[in-house]
Amino acid sequence: MTRSVTIGELARALDARSWGDAALPVIGAAEPAATSPVGPDGGVIALAMAPKYAEALKPGSMAILAEGMDPEAYGLKAAIFAPRPRLLMAGLTRAFDAGPDIAPGIHPTAVVDASAVIGADTAIGPFVVIGPGVRIGAGARIGPHVSVGRNARIGDQALIHAGARIAHGVHAGDRLIVQSGAVIGGDGFSFVTPEESGIEEIRRTLGAREDIRQQHWTRIHSLGGVELGHDVEIGANATIDRGTIRATRVGDGTKIDNLVMLGHNVVVGRDCLLCSQVGVAGSSRIGDRVVLAGQVGVNDNIEIGDDVIAGGATKIFTRVPSGRVILGNPAVKMETQMEIQKAMRRLPRFAQQLAKLQETVTRLLEKA
Amino acid sequence: MTRSVTIGELARALDARSWGDAALPVIGAAEPAATSPVGPDGGVIALAMAPKYAEALKPGSMAILAEGMDPEAYGLKAAIFAPRPRLLMAGLTRAFDAGPDIAPGIHPTAVVDASAVIGADTAIGPFVVIGPGVRIGAGARIGPHVSVGRNARIGDQALIHAGARIAHGVHAGDRLIVQSGAVIGGDGFSFVTPEESGIEEIRRTLGAREDIRQQHWTRIHSLGGVELGHDVEIGANATIDRGTIRATRVGDGTKIDNLVMLGHNVVVGRDCLLCSQVGVAGSSRIGDRVVLAGQVGVNDNIEIGDDVIAGGATKIFTRVPSGRVILGNPAVKMETQMEIQKAMRRLPRFAQQLAKLQETVTRLLEKA
Amino acid sequence: MTRSVTIGELARALDARSWGDAALPVIGAAEPAATSPVGPDGGVIALAMAPKYAEALKPGSMAILAEGMDPEAYGLKAAIFAPRPRLLMAGLTRAFDAGPDIAPGIHPTAVVDASAVIGADTAIGPFVVIGPGVRIGAGARIGPHVSVGRNARIGDQALIHAGARIAHGVHAGDRLIVQSGAVIGGDGFSFVTPEESGIEEIRRTLGAREDIRQQHWTRIHSLGGVELGHDVEIGANATIDRGTIRATRVGDGTKIDNLVMLGHNVVVGRDCLLCSQVGVAGSSRIGDRVVLAGQVGVNDNIEIGDDVIAGGATKIFTRVPSGRVILGNPAVKMETQMEIQKAMRRLPRFAQQLAKLQETVTRLLEKA
Q1: Distance, CA of C44 to CA of C77 (rounded, Å)
Q2: Closest by CA position to A240, among listed A287, A183, A305
Q3: Which ipTM score applies to this complex?
Q4: Are residues A128 and A141 in the same domain?
Q5: Inter-chain CB proximity A97 and C332 less than 8 Å
Q6: Domain co-membership, C23 together with C124
Q7: What CATH number is associated with residue A40?
Q8: Tag placement on chain C: N or C end, fewer CB within 10 Å?
Q9: Which residue, among C62, C94, C145, C183, would best test binding to B if mutated, counting the most B CBs under 10 Å from its CB?
Q10: pLDDT-based confidence at C109, cuts 50/70/90?
């Protein structure tokens, strides 16, 4: 599948200025070193927003340059000038993304319950299973082997990749993207023992164990669903458990990366980024515009304010006020963590200095 | 699908005392603020085990209260008194869990090998694949797109959610629950190099590398299976690898959360809780009633005693005696970790104090 | 399925020396305690490479022993002597691995696009979906519910387990192994805000936040594919995202364990081992023969040299030179980490010593 636009059309779509022959057809994007002179059917365009990248461009090719760079110096046939490079990258890549290519219509092998309501212009792949009472909006693209459980509701323009699992009662807004293997609406991990359990005991005693005994775990079932806002994206093999009584919730515009885990009853606000392998334990609440870098962990029943940013592998055990930038295990302010790390590296030296000082003082004492 | 019981029946089922009109039908559970006056078809019941929750109840509704609370003060029509709230929660949620709703019988699209033996009263969804020699007990519910490999054996009353993978030779007891996307019986991650590998070298030299050379990894195949006891639950997208020669084993009553990894040859005891994103490397052994909180890591070939509790993100590199409560990376006793963390936060101040003290002592020495 | 070879054939296949009756048939491997006297149809062979293991062998059974051990002392009927035990283990387990048992040919339920080219001697299971333009080499075994997207290319002798996802445009070499639920070629997690985002701000200000404002995330699409070399293995539920413009790449001979995450544009070299739950963020580059133990995290845009070994749960935020052995969060040389950990355990005592020393010095000052 080849898409092609002229470089002039592309510049207009990207709200950017073009230079050179605006009629040249662009058929895709490439790295600077992978460019070649534009041929009769057009050519690829490279991102080369700094001279060090632009040097690899082939003469006669096309590129996106930063303002102030000279396309003639690189022998280009045409160029686009990028005011904000990464934003332009979004537009450029969207223009050439052919996506997973699911054939329009409902594949004959799909099992769609008669009571399900599917919007117009959908593409549903082979072996998809859609349960009773499901509603899916217009323009949905659903890859092979996806299952959507009873009474789930999904808005317009959804893109659900192969093998994703949307369990019964999950509700999602418009423009939902679910990568392959994600599981939305698994049962919460919530158990209780008839007597006080070891975990309850150490929470009460802050670590001491008095009396260890047999304990069998009885399951607390998950009756709540999962509610996802508009423009939510869920990564490959991520898991979002359903709530116990109320729903687990993810706000509008929040993006969730691969292998992330959201426990039962978790609430995540709007426009957050939860990077890969983040885990948020049951009933924690995360504000708006929060960024959790890869492998961050959030204990259960924790509150994280708006605009918090947590660096990679930060482990959060206590409430985090809004706007804070945190790092480390356990999480502290990033600048404090930096000081702690510096001091830790000097620790073995401290130990030596302290020992020497003790000796000196002992000698001084003897003299005194 | 609506289930309904009277509040009197529900109280009896929960082994608890009811108050008010015992004939009112209960059709589900809700949060206190989401209640409404009981109508002719009944209503939802809220959990409101403390006054701060009960204040949100709507007059004319139904609730579960703690002993000593006054249902009339909240204008309730009926109430249940909970002796141990979380245990009651288990009973309540079980009563109203409609589950994944798989139609009874074997879906015509399922591919079940002629030599497989499936018990009575099973519900097997669309596109399920069941291999030769498989035995599945009575009352199993198996969601769409599940695969069960050759000679696997699963006990009675299993619930296997959409897209779970049970590989060949896996054995499981009764009341097995497998959430979507879990993979039971993948091959172990076990490789060997013809010559000593870098890993073997640093284990021998404790970190030093003398001689770095080419190394190609040859696979050690996994001939062992996976054995799961009765009442085991496996979370969404968790993975349990098969053993090399003997089986990887999980004991009765153990619950495993989403995205947990158990390596080849691992043995986990009875009634453990392994929370989300826990990883246990190959050949480690975990005792009974062990609780590993989210993101805990266990090195390979480690022994963890009975009744150990490890806090969130604890990394375990060495043997842990029974009954110990541990925290941190590397794991130490929780109380020691608390002291270490306190001291770490004071570290930058220590550094200053130490420097100042050195100055003072230097001056004293000059005087002496 | 029973395979059987004579112990003499097995010894020759393993390039090892046999002892005793070389004609005895071996039908599988077992642990020493699970052996029994060889019967008329043969028996299992146990690995017992040290006397403590060999003591559990049953008289009349067969075993693999270390050089210098005496088979008559254990009453064995036959034995094989292993020069390098773990290497022999690879040969032994390969000899008896029956694998996932996918029937030869293409299952009638599989949906294979007419334009796909599939090599000879393949076994493709039920409900497999293979898209347009796909090329798969000879001898492939593909389990049930696998999907292979448009224009993907896979070499000879691939083994792809049930429910694995190979997205459009993924290229892989020969002898590829993909465990169940792995997702190769999901979209990268790459977003941009129209204005500078909070993350960009703290990278610039090193932690300070001046001005918090609304931010919506715009998606950067992933046009690059994923390129896997020869002899690559991908673990269960691992995820490898596609690159943005160029491909995400994994070199020949590299093995990737369960639940590992490789972000967009990541490059991993040859003959690496990436253990379970490792996460490598976008655009990082990893050299050849690198070993990352379980739960290691690598920040984005990091370079890791050849022959680096990182211990369990190491978190890597900065460049690592070739050959280094690292441990801890943040990663430091393993020997430095050992010293830091020792000092940390002594920290509370340091604090006491420091306080006492301060007192002493104060008293000395008063006297002076």
Answers
A1: 12
A2: A183
A3: 0.92
A4: yes
A5: no
A6: no
A7: 3.40.1390.10
A8: N
A9: C145
A10: very high
